[in-house]
Amino acid sequence: MTTSLPPSPPEPTVPHVRVEITEELDLAGLPEVTHVLDQILALRPRAVTIDLAECRHVDAAAIALLLDVHRQLARRDGTLTLSNPHPRIRRILATAGLGVTVPIVDTPRPATRGRARVSSAPR
């Protein structure tokens, strides 16, 4: 009798992806953000950083999305980090308990050269 080990998961295709949220992160904008994050997760990144410096509002649906992204990455030994949240957003995330499972950090923002922005049409 021979036994075979289950196939190992594919290696990450990119080491790190950084995303900027430039608008409110709420139920109205969630479909577009979800679509972008699904495309990023399909790349199997080792780490994803979501920069919230320009985001001024998050709601419960957004927090649920962030937790879901965290869980998907954790299943593949990846990490989600939230960076540069406005103090009010930081308090909302802390109240929701997100800072316990997802690192929330303040980091220098990269230069604008070489970045892509995803922005929705005016609502």
Shape label: globular
Please give the count of helices.
4
Q: What oligomeric state do these chains adopt?
A: single chain
Integer-rounded radius of gyration: 16 Å
Query: Strand count, sense and closure of the main sheet?
Result: 4 strands, parallel
Write structural notes for this entry.
Strands 1-2-3-4 form a four-stranded parallel beta sheet, with helices on one face. It is an alpha/beta fold and 123 residues long. The termini are far apart. Helix 1 runs parallel beside helix 2. Strand 1, helix 1 and strand 2 form a beta-alpha-beta unit. It has helices at residues 30-42, 60-75, 87-95, 98-101, and strands at 16-20, 47-51, 79-83, 104-105. Helix content is 34%, strand content 14%.
Reconstruct the topology from this structure.
Layout (H helix, E strand, L loop, with lengths): L15 E5 L9 H13 L4 E5 L8 H16 L3 E5 L3 H9 L2 H4 L2 E2 L18
Helix pairs in contact: 1-2
Which tags fit this structure?
4 helices; four-stranded parallel beta sheet; disordered C terminus; alpha/beta; 123 residues
